[in-house]
Amino acid sequence: MGRQPCCDKVGLKKGPWTADEDKKLINFILTNGQCCWRSVPKLAGLLRCGKSCRLRWINYLRPDLKRGLLSDDEEKLVIHLHAQLGNRWSKIASHMAGRTDNEIKNHWNTHIKKKLKKMGIDPTTHQPLPSPAVDQPPPESERTESKSITFEQSTISTDDSINDDKIIESNDVLLVSSSDFCIDEIPVIGPHEILLPPPLPDQSSPTTSCSSSCSSGGASWPNAMGVAQSFEDYCSEIVNIDIWEQDFGDVFDLLGDYESDLKGEDAMNLESSWEMMIGDDQI
DNA sequence: AAGAGCTGCAACCGCTCATGA
DNA sequence: ATCATGAGCGGTTGCAGCTCT
């Protein structure tokens, strides 16, 4: 006997959810909690399959969801996590409170992929794309051996012998480079220098808030040395991450702190989210 | 102004995997 | 061992809104 389909498709509604359907689902889950999705549509009075209800709840109706585009900080975090986890969107989403795997996947496919490709970075491997993908390589006369830092060359030891002067040199290269990102100019960084998301919005650091960075237009992110850098520069550093996989325990510990902060922030917004969604009288 | 083409996002589909009865 | 179920995933579709010509 084969597996029973998740729902009887005859007579079930498909396509966009209406406000009335949303309200029914919200009210049901508020009253009963999340349980046995298969029975949810029947009990909630919805002509939807359980899977559709679950997706609608997880991807859209959950009160702890953030709305709107991913902030620059979140985008950075997605790239960080994708470099380590690959296309495991749910794992990535689990590190980003208020965001869903579907949302992150969509954002990755529509925004981040393009950005990385434009910068000559393979979004799948986070490695430089083969040279033909890089637009208009500079003339031979303009290339210098010393400037080129390949990934093979970047495979350096992870001890503390990384010379700060060298990093400054690399940063200098970046500073003098044009706005067109060149993978040959990636600075070498150590695991202790891997960038973490800037502090979340809080009372003590208002300038790092999402809204401020988003509204400012050209957001800049501090590198390991606290120097403001562009998105391109930032990405040029993170593509080196997998070189030091063994050192990522500390990084993920810190990412965990980041997640905790997000949760705290979201908790504050929880009630207002519900109010907006279903009205004060139903809370 | 209008139609075509493009873009981004919500939603769906079909599949695998994990888990518990 | 088998089956039902939910979770998760990659791929895809449909549509509204935007941009281009």
TrEMBL record:
Gene3D superfamilies: Homeodomain-like. Pfam families: Myb_DNA-binding. One of its GO terms (biological process) is carboxylic acid biosynthetic process. This is Transcription factor MYB20-like. Residues 121-151 are annotated as: Disordered. Residues 9-61, 62-112 form the Myb-like domain. Its main location: nucleus.
